[in-house]
Amino acid sequence: MSTSTKEHRSGSHPRHRRAVGQKREGSINGVKFAVMDGAGKIKAALSEATGEVLESLGNVRDSATTHARDGLETMRDTAVDYVDQGKSQVHDAEAAIERTIRNQPLTSVLIAAGAGFLIGAIWCRR
Q: What mean pLDDT do residues 33-50 have?
């Protein structure tokens, strides 16, 4: 058998080695391209998902802010109502005390004197 036949069968012929190398290089380039393409698609998908997450977080923030503002307004309105009711009750009590003093002046003076005596007695014990 000649040397060129042996080289040809064993695959060590220079033309064969060059063809195999080019084939490998083409395969490697194809893999590189596929990896780069896949990486680009992953990057785009992550970018889109990040945008959607940020948008959702913004919506949640806006909703929470609106609910908090509404809750504060409701609490403020309720507090104002309680203050108004308290003022009304104090005014009614003041009017009732004035009526009682005008209708029963002697009883009012005796009650005031008794209250003063009790306060004085408690004060002196200290």
A: 88
